[in-house]
Amino acid sequence: MSKKYKTVKNFYDRGLWSKKRVHDAVVKSWITKEEYMEITGEEYAEEV
């Protein structure tokens, strides 16, 4: 699990972050593509 996974998931689950913000967290290497799918329920795509 990435260091910032819990933070990103918490923000998304509380409605503070959109899928775009979670996508940006992958771009910044805060979370992995697999973790993106766990958080959003959707497969990661390079383009949003």
From TrEMBL:
It comes from the Bacteria. InterPro entries: XkdX. This is XkdX family protein. The lineage of its organism: Bacteria, Bacillati, Bacillota, Clostridia, Lachnospirales.
